[in-house]
Amino acid sequence: MNLKTLFGTFVLMILCSGAPAMATEHAIPVASQQMVLVLAESENSQTAMLYTFYRDQAHWQSHSGPVPVTLGRTGLAWGIGLHPAQIGVQKREGDGKAPAGVFYLGDAFGAGSELVTGLHYQPMTKEHYCVDVPASPLYNQTLIKTDANAELIDGSTEPMRRDLHLKDSQYNKGIFVGHNPHNQAGAGSCIFMHIWRAADKPTAGCTALDESAIDQLLAWLKADQSPVLVQLTRADYQRLRADWALPLVTVP
């Protein structure tokens, strides 16, 4: 049976045990009780700092951070998620940019049969691919390649078992990010949080962490808390903090 991981909000509702479909006017869903906040110095930054927060009686409380992460090789651009549309550079397929904005965090995935996490877990096989071919009707979906769908997956550069295909460990542990929820062709695909190559090695558009840091994040996150990723430049964080009811972080 094919295992599909769709990035649409509706599918994330299923995968995340009832995550709400609509965001509040502040961009953060009321039901979201955990936040991963990533702040970059500028839209061209290849690195950033990650903080985690939990909601306590409607107020955000600090949990951990800062933790260094790597971003896309060309920085950040506005993605499609829970936040209102923003003026500025918009994320496109192949641009090397990580998405800025607010996004649900979906299932965990990885190479092992099990993973220590409060998220639902999807073990990947050698035949799992995330489709990054804009013309494919399977664009921005993760599924098992079969004889029946091979034509629609051919050309994708995102095998989910990189350890078997590309001989690296980046996807041995990761989290699906709900970017481009309606799979709009060319708007960016296959966005994850995953293990970094190194502290000075950017990604193709994901957010990457040291393996020990992603282990801690995976163990802390819980599917029934409807966790979100908020990823912004420091300037946009300052501009949007009050409107989006974001937690206070001291920004030097």
Automatic annotation (TrEMBL):
<protein>
    <recommendedName>
        <fullName>L,D-TPase catalytic domain-containing protein</fullName>
    </recommendedName>
</protein>
<feature type="domain" description="L,D-TPase catalytic">
    <location>
        <begin position="50"/>
        <end position="230"/>
    </location>
</feature>
<dbReference type="InterPro" id="IPR005490">
    <property type="entry name" value="LD_TPept_cat_dom"/>
</dbReference>
<keyword id="KW-0732">Signal</keyword>
<dbReference type="Pfam" id="PF03734">
    <property type="entry name" value="YkuD"/>
</dbReference>
<dbReference type="GO" id="GO:0016740">
    <property type="term" value="F:transferase activity"/>
</dbReference>
<feature type="signal peptide">
    <location>
        <begin position="1"/>
        <end position="23"/>
    </location>
</feature>
